[in-house]
Amino acid sequence: MARKIAAGNWKMNGVEADLVQVDALAEAVAAASCDVLLCPPATLIAPMAARAGLMDLYVGGQSCHAAASGAHTGDISAGMLADAGATHVIVGHSERRADHGETNEDVAAQVTAAIDAGLIAIICVGETEAERDAEVTLNVVASQLAGSIPTGALPAHIVVAYEPVWAIGTGRTPTLEQIAEVHDHIRSELAARRGGAANDIPLLYGGSVKPGNAVEIFAVSNVDGALVGGASLKASDFGGIIAALSAA
Ligand SMILES: O=C[C@H](O)COP(=O)(O)O
């Protein structure tokens, strides 16, 4: 049985003053029966981890380089994220794949680097709108999974997030049947490679998750939580999503 995770991705949003949102989450985190994770910009990882103090709140990065160090201006290594207090890192987000041309091979190398640094890698997959319209969603997701997860990665070290690109930040979501279809497919693809251990890999849905749709999404088969963008920036919204997952 996979752990339940409510993960927030602040993307390129937030300055130190916004860390008051962490204090405001304290009650929701204390009452949660799921893991709660926030992935702020790299500049806020250390102060957020310090702010989290004794709260049961994990802090993560949004990307990492495959190399441990070296001449990679503007990049950050998995070890640096861990050094700043991160326990997780998002890899292969569609915004990284689109903005930085990251391929499945790049993502697999980042996953290996993350695991080597002691981080849990949250591996993102998902189809574009054109791919959904062309009815190739399941193939696209299967090939992203096959290419982005290194064969040696243990289930305890990885999380998979299904994020349809067209649902990110748009207010649009797939139908519950469509989410179930993809999550069931991801579970069976993982099981084909890893057998029963695949059941331990948390599968998160991401794309316009809000307090108002969280309850129904968390009731879908093989949805173990969410990777939340916009609604993770405000403690009141993210708190509602954490409560919905805890009750699921
Ligand atoms: O990583 C998070 C996702 O891209 C979802 O973003 P969103 O909740 O703003 O649609």
UniProtKB/TrEMBL annotation:
Catalytic activity, as annotated: L-erythrulose 1-phosphate = D-erythrulose 4-phosphate; D-glyceraldehyde 3-phosphate = dihydroxyacetone phosphate
Cellular localisation: Cytoplasm
Residues reported in the UniProt entry to bind substrate: N9, W10, K11, G169, S208, G229, G230
One GO CC annotation: cytosol
UniProt GO BP: gluconeogenesis; glyceraldehyde-3-phosphate biosynthetic process; glycerol catabolic process; glycolytic process
UniProt cross-references to InterPro entries, sorted A to Z: Aldolase_TIM (IPR013785), TIM_sf (IPR035990), TrioseP_Isoase_bac/euk (IPR022896), Triosephosphate_isomerase (IPR000652), Triosephosphate_isomerase_AS (IPR020861)
Major enzyme class: isomerase
SUPFAM superfamilies on file: Triosephosphate isomerase (TIM) (SSF51351)
PANTHER family referenced in this protein's UniProt entry, alphabetically: TRIOSEPHOSPHATE ISOMERASE (PTHR21139)
UniProt record similarity statement: Belongs to the triosephosphate isomerase family.
Subunit record text: Homodimer.
Protein name: Triosephosphate isomerase
Organism listed in the record: Gymnodinialimonas phycosphaerae
Name of the coding gene: tpiA
